[in-house]
Amino acid sequence: MARHVLLLATLDTKAAEAGFLSDRLADLGVPVQAVDLSLDQTGQAPTGKLALMEAAAARARAQLAATCDPETAVVVGLGGGTGSQVILKAMRDLPVTLPKVLITTLPFDPRDALADSSIILVPTLADIEGLNDILRQTFDRAACMIRGLVDAVPLDSSARAIGITALGVTQPASAALCRRLSVAGFEPTVFHANGYGGAAFARFVSAGAFEGVIDMTVHEITRLHLAGAHVPMPTRFSCAADLPRVVLPGGLNFLGLGALDTVPESLRNRPIFRHSQLFTHVQLSVEEMARAALLLAGELNAAHAPVDVILPMGGFSSEDRPGGALASPELREVAATTLERAARHYRTRRLDSHINDPETAEVAVAALLEHLP
To answer: What is the pLDDT averaged over residues 305-317?
Structure first.
């Protein structure tokens, strides 16, 4: 078969809609191969639906593994509430760079499902329950977009890429790192270390996207082990074990929580910084900082490639500075001492500068370049 599209749908309930999309793609010269995700709930108790969904996703993964080949240009899913969740599970194992499109009623918050999957969402707004003008227009536009993806030529991937982690509170440092790496002939790729972006960072590192890493914002270790919203990312701090790596304690000094009125009462007596109406940063305790630093040290000691830990003792985030809402030299000292004492595989270096100072970026880039050809 020529370059084609795989279309995932529950054909027992969405046959007409999937047929319309298939016909529209065929009109545009795109062959379509359907993958049926029907749950077959005949005789099943309502409590058995979750098991049926898992079984459908497993079947879909197996079918995708068997049918997805070099001529598969795009994988497309079409689903309502149940079908979309099954399709997302099935798509997660596909290569991160393979184009994937989900046409969905979007009856859930998609952030968890999309954290590391590079799936393009096309919301239908109307329910997928029989064809109508709204759905036909949505499917028609989606077909045109998919046609473009089929024809897309892969971009040149010869750049020498470096993975970087950042947050708003370390953005000046990220910008400085990017400038210096670009001057040195490398292409920086920045990920938002907010409990979700780290999953994408780990996925791309594992896929071999980078020659080296500057994990400048390790804030997600507090989300994973102390508090804060996040998705599962078991390889967040181990994925780069075989790459030259520079690590800084960006954002290690606070818990990343939600809107202020959602912060537990037990934490409201601590120093707090309202990053926005939706996000609140709560300072770690001494015990939490020691634990977070020790957890990070354990991950870094398991590395196989060189690791340099840069400790900017002037502050770990924008508000960890003289006069800042989260200023704490004590916490910085706890982190630095813990990381220094636990070092087995990595080197540590203290700086007087703040993490967002230009000097810090200069030292970090120089340390990484030392290990790159």
So the answer is: 98
Measured on CA atoms in the order 17, 18, 21, 23, is the torsion positive or negative? negative
CA distance 179 to 201: 20
CA proximity to 315, closest of 370, 253, 258 = 253
Burial 266-299 (b: 16+ CB within 10 A, else e): eeeeebbbebeeebbbbbbeeebbbbbbebbbeb
d(CA 273, CA 321): 13
3-class DSSP assignment, residue 163: strand
Tokens standing for residue 322:
């003289």
Q: Which of 61, 80, 86, 73 is nearest to 33 (CA)?
A: 73
Region of 319 on the Ramachandran plot (φ > 0 left; ψ -120 to 50 alpha; else beta): alpha
Q: Is 234 exposed, middle or buried (0-12, 13-18, 19+ CB in 10 A)?
A: exposed
pLDDT at 55: 86
Q: How confident is the model at residue 42 (pLDDT cuts 50, 70, 90)?
A: low
- For residues 7 and 76, the answer to whether their CB atoms sit within 8 Å is yes
Spatial CA neighbour of 213 closest among 225, 222, 205, 221: 205
**Burial class of 219 by CB neighbour count within 10 A (0 to 12, 13 to 18, 19+):** buried
Structure tokens at 294: 């020790």
pTM, 2 dp: 0.89
d(CA 180, CA 349): 20
